[in-house]
Amino acid sequence: MARILIIDDEPNIIKTLTAILQDEGHEVSSAKAGQEGLGFIKRSDVDVVLLDVWLPDIDGIEVLQRVKESRPDIAVIMISGHGSIDIAVKSTKMGAFDFLEKPPSMERVLTSVNNALEQLRLRRENLQLRREAGMEDEMIGGSAAMGEIRQTIETAAATNARVFITGGNGTGKELVARAIFRRSKRSDRPFIKVNCAAIPTELIESELFGHEKGSFTGAIARRLGKFELAHGGTIFLDEVCDMSASAQAKVLRVLQEQQFERVGGADTITVDARVISATNIDAEKAISGGSFREDLYYRLNVIPIRVPSLAERRDDIPLLVSYFMEKFTKEHGLGSKEITADGMDLLLAHPWPGNVRELKNVIERISIMVPREEISAADIKKHLATKAAGRVSQGDASSLKSAREDFEREFIVRALEKNDGNITLTAKELGMERTNLHRKIKQYGIEPGKAGE
Hints:
Elements: E1 3-7, H1 11-23, E2 27-31, H2 34-43, E3 48-52, H3 60-70, E4 75-80, H4 85-93, E5 98-101, H5 106-132, H6 144-157, E6 163-166, H7 173-183, E7 191-195, H8 204-209, H9 226-229, E8 234-238, H10 245-257, E9 259-261, E10 268-270, E11 274-279, H11 283-288, H12 294-300, E12 303-306, H13 317-331, E13 338-339, H14 341-349, H15 355-369, E14 374-375, H16 377-381, H17 386-393, H18 397-418, H19 423-430, H20 434-443
Parallel strand pairs: 1-2, 1-3, 3-4, 4-5, 6-11, 6-12, 7-8, 8-11, 13-14
Antiparallel strand pairs: 9-10
């Protein structure tokens, strides 16, 4: 439910808009003049304003300006019975979310309001994330490798240059992207993440660039894409090498011209969004194999950052263990706990194919499952993926893939057990998209409801 204010001097327009918006579950108020509307905004919380350009006391454009000066978080949708390109352009430049002509189509009103609310939700979510940003959003570690990454982050953050992050699963590529964003001049604007591997090929263009009503089966209304929602901010293309060829071509055009069309649309949309991308595969091999465009790679790879595996920065393991142990004992209301010397030796020797993500989940598991204050090597062994570790320790390159798959399958099974087979909770805990988790479950032949059997 959103709080919506209609500022219009036509009773029929107010009545019609109020009825359709209330049917959608929104809380709707109205004002018949500009000063009345501004007074309401001072006294009340408002999410969206539907504002007529022509009002009996002050001009709607002036109302827009004053709303944006006092409450820039409010989305303002302009409505005019005498629409002109000049007024539409002027109001958009002043911060209006959309411009509708009278009499507005009810479907068009709902689409505009829903898109405004989605953008508003993303902005508020980003603000909340920034308020809550603590150590977890930082790259924890005192190793030389982490020092170099921090220095590169500071250098990259001061510019608008594109950043290309590489590294294995669980190394912290998204943390690097968010660290750059938080330190950038765009930190007060949206940060939009897109997991390219989790979106079906046939839907990724719609996800990135939006679509018009009727452009394909199921497109019942216009939808803004991630690039449009990221306007003025940053878009993070995770697993970028998994994009379809057609999506790659469109992304290349956005990088070259800052323009695109929605799926099924003819209007050209201009967008200003910084692009940070990441991949866990060898991009140059993907290029030579024909699955990734070389020209796109060079456009994205302005500032390269390689995030090392945990095995390459073992000196950071004690610091990470200490941080995660403190975090999870507090989070789950447990007493203080410590890893014994032999336990730490075991953690230092483990191959960590799942990198920091694996370590984090192991520490959470043992902090919950081991009731004693001191956690020994024997306790830890029970909760490590020993089968995968044994294969990797053999040094057999051909078994590395199967070892990782064994570990990943066991990891997912345990997470499903913990959450009683609940896909949504498990995906959230593992930091995966639900669609990606479904794909993994199908790949490994896991039955969520029987994961513990």
